[in-house]
Amino acid sequence: MVYEERNTWVGLIVSVIAMTVYVIVVLRQAAGGPLTDVVWWPIMLWTIGLSIVGSIAISILWGILAGMRDPDGVGKSDMRDRDIARMGSRVGQAFMVIAGLGVIVLCAFEADWFWIANTMFFGFFLTAFLGGIASVIAYRRGIV
Amino acid sequence: MVKPTRVTNSIRALREVAGLTQVELAKRIGVTRQTLIAIEQGRYSPSLELAFQIARVFGVGLDDVFQYPQAES
Q1: A35 to chain B, minimum CA–CA distance in Å?
Q2: pLDDT, tens digit, 9 for 90 and up, residues A60-80
Q3: CA dihedral defined by A132, B31, B34, A131, rounded to 10 degrees?
Q4: pTM to 2 decimals?
Q5: Is the Cβ pair B35, A80 closer than 8 Å?
Q6: pLDDT tens digits for A86-134?
Q7: Residue B25 in 3-state DSSP?
Q8: Does an H or E element contain B67, and which?
Q9: Are the beta carbons of B50 and A79 separated by less than 8 Å?
Q10: Element (H, E) at B10
């Protein structure tokens, strides 16, 4: 597995874990009550912060382990990596646009801030997750 | 999901004739071994520049490395 593919896998795994943990924490804080009563922003910021730190840490650890087996391949990327990254971004970007439009609609209807922020947050997740899935498939099955 | 390419190539055969390993050829054209494997197996279409680099390593023309089927008439 090449360096960039490892990073794609890390992003994918971390985004799924982060979103799952976020949803669980928010639901537990709501404790069956209305979700709009939850103080969502510290949870969201912690989730984003820990995701970034977690991604970096896992990438470094995985890189060290992979480097022991294949020292020549450490940190190397080439045009296929760039092509796959571009394709993955294009796939993910569509969902960011959909989330952005959702936010505009929610603002128009003066929805609670909880729903506005979480729609955007879910858009970030979908962008990372589906872009990552598309990239992983391209690494495994090819991009022509 | 992935649209298959109709381009085929003779990289593996040329490589074996030249006595080059995948690692050696990948190093000479500046890509990872995984990218070379993907090109050999038709899972990645290289850029025109990379295609020329591959042909140059073997000292042959582009047509000797990459083939495209004739259009059916």
Answers
A1: 38
A2: 998 888 888 877 666 678 899
A3: 10
A4: 0.84
A5: yes
A6: 999 999 999 999 999 999 999 999 999 999 999 999 999 999 999 999 9
A7: helix
A8: strand B66-67
A9: yes
A10: none
CB contact under 8 A, A142 and B42: yes
Condensed to tens digits (0 to 9), the pLDDT of residues B27-52 reads: 999 999 999 999 999 999 999 999 99
The secondary structure of A37-98 as a DSSP string is: GS-HHHHHHHHHHHHHHHHHHHHHHHHHHHHHH-GGGTT---HHHHHHHHHHHHHHHHHHHH
Hunting for tokens 């922003």 — which residue is that?
A41
For helices B33-40 and B11-18, give the axis angle rounded to 10 degrees: 120
Residue position matching structure tokens 């050696």: B24
Contact partners, residue A13, CB within 8 Å, separation at least 6: A58
